[in-house]
Design a protein that fits this description.
Elements lengths: L1 H23 L3 H38 L2 H23 L5 H28 L16
Length: 139
């Protein structure tokens, strides 16, 4: 719990410090080019930064709450849906080998979900399995 959050926050602070010093000692000409480019694409970069931060927070939350395997399943499923969305709504296409890859990924995710469902059914067994219920005596 708390230890994992401390690791996440420590990593974020170290990254922030690193990029601060990187920007501080960045060559002026290169910095000028970055500023010029920033003006053109500032909105897109802000959106990308926010999405990246939220994505990293979601990954950290998933791993710390569940486990890395759940995170792998979630991210693989998201990638599958991204590919299918791209094909259906953005006009992109896949080669037959690409479709085969999507099918393998879907099969892997479905097998993982099936294994987890079977495991959860085994752990939730009835308490009185094999025992007969005692009848209450009436007076």
């Amino acid at each position: 719990g708390e230890n994992k959050k401390n690791i996440f926050y420590s990593f974020s602070i170290i990254t922030l410090i690193f990029f601060f010093f990187y920007r501080l000692f960045c060559p002026p000409f290169y910095y000028f080019l970055i500023l010029r480019e920033r003006k053109k694409k500032k909105k897109k970069k802000i959106q990308f930064s926010i999405c990246s931060a939220l994505g990293q927070s979601f990954i950290f939350f998933t791993i710390s709450t569940f486990d890395p395997l759940v995170n792998a399943t979630v991210t693989t499923t998201r990638k599958i849906f991204s590919v299918i969305y791209s094909i259906l709504f953005k006009g992109n296409s896949l080669s037959p080998i690409g479709w085969f890859g999507v099918a393998i990924a879907c099969a892997g995710v479905l097998a993982d979900i099936s294994d987890k469902a079977q495991a959860s059914q085994k752990t939730v067994a009835p308490k009185n399995k094999g025992k007969k219920k005692k009848k209450k005596k009436t007076k």
